[in-house]
Amino acid sequence: MKEGFRQAMAWLHTWAGLTFGWLLFAIFLTGTLSYFKEEITQWTQPEIVPHQVSAAASVDRAQQWLQQNAGDARRWFINLPDERTPELAVSWTNAKGRFERKSLDSLSGVPVQARESSGGEFFYRFHFQLQMPYPWGRWLASLAAMVMFVALVSGIITHKKIFKEFFTFRPRKGQRTWLDGHNAVAVLVLPFHLMITYSSLVIFMTMIMPLSILTTYGKDTQTFFDDLFPAFKSAPAAGTHATLAPLSPMLEVAREKWPNERVGLVTVNNPGDAGASVTLTASGADHIAHQPGTALTFDGVTGELKNETRMSAASLLLAGGLYGLHMGHFAGPFLRWLYFLCGVGGTAMIGTGLVIWLGKRRLKHARSDVIPFELRLVEMLNIASMSGLMLAIVSFFWANRLLPVGLAGRSDWEVKTFFCVWGLALLHALARVFLRDGRTAWREQLTLAALLFCSLPVLDAVTAGSYLRLSLEQGRWVLPGVDLTALATGLFMAWGALRFRGDGKAALAVRPTTPSTGEPLSPDAPGDRVIATRTPIVQEPR
Questions:
Q1: Residue in 32, 46, 38, 30 with CA at minimum distance from that of residue 459
Q2: How many Å apart are CA 38 and CA 15, to the nearest integer?
Q3: Fewer CB within 10 Å of terminal CB in the chain, N or C?
Q4: Is the entire prediction scored with pTM above 0.90?
Q5: What is the residue-wise DSSP string for 400-437?
Q6: Rounded mean pLDDT of 308-313?
């Protein structure tokens, strides 16, 4: 019974990982990049230079600009700059309900003439929306997260000696090396994998588990969120003109109320109306738990504090804590890099699992020149989803530097470049896998990715040299940091390309050996069970 249950969990682990592995690889990789979303955005918009300006001065400049250019708006949003986000971002909902946004220089208060780019926001949005219309992308990403959680739990149950195997690594042993690597990265960052997967489900819990909300509120879900976060409930306009009070004194009140927290967002409802109100929200970078319900609400005309709300319900604090752990906004540089490395480990775990599945089945056809169609299909998808995705990512950065600065819809063209290159990588993998062999496709795509990543710092120096030089002179390492990370990635891609040199048939002929004699195992020999029992995380019932 016990072994039968383990066999069932092994089957579940294997096929859950295979069916959603390619999608999960993309979700994990883009999510990993999102931990440096602000830094990537700075790199893609080097024209936005950070300044040492107080929050009060920034909000005064933002208020002045909005009064002159968006005085008839229904709502203003002012995102104050910090050490990671140099721009003073203002956005508003106009009278027609259209959302607009501008980046202001925090020193002068005038719009920054920066190149249009989605920057790190693209990878962040793709991570949970997959560039699909709302809500279908979020539903698919949530389903993938559920499958990932099932795969993690089933892998733990299946693996009898999970921690013992963690300390076992056999290099240059073909499948065993991949298995050891898969087990090592799985165990090393297992708490991170469980946290990041479960918290992703909590973030979208109102979407994937809406029954209790629908039972109480019906289709009026907005009332639910108004009750949950009363500070953000907007009263209707009075219809009488009135001058908006200065916003900077409200920041001083917030400083007294929140001595250890900063204001991250200023929301103005009905500006220029007698019924105007101002809501100050604390920055999410000051504590682990995300607390959107913690806010100060002021009368927009008199400037008096009307209400102070703070998240106190245990359920909200728990949900906010999981959200904060998932996003990592609170993390300093060291912890953010640790998040990044754990994300890389999760991505590697998924990738090695896909390689293991294919490699184990290719062994059965090692003496044959005929590889089944389904194995070729899996190999093609492996190549396109891994090396092809890396090519698409680096092409996004190249497009940011090469596209004309004044090009209309420039950010859309960056995204189009990303998907066009990814599609070409898929076609290249298709042609190579079905006409020659997969190793050639791996080698060519990894080589090209290595060249593009390694030469990205050179491209940056040529096309944005003044900004790069100025950044180095001022001791700001964001731009050169992205370049150095690209260089390190390129070197890793080059190492991977070198691993795929040589003849595909020769590589395929590498056989596992019996532990006792060292003789090669036949594809159907009982000894194949020996490999499976030593690494039951990928074992399948026969």
A1: 46
A2: 36
A3: N
A4: no
A5: HHHS-TT-TTHHHHHHHHHHHHHHHHHHHHHHHHHHS-
A6: 79
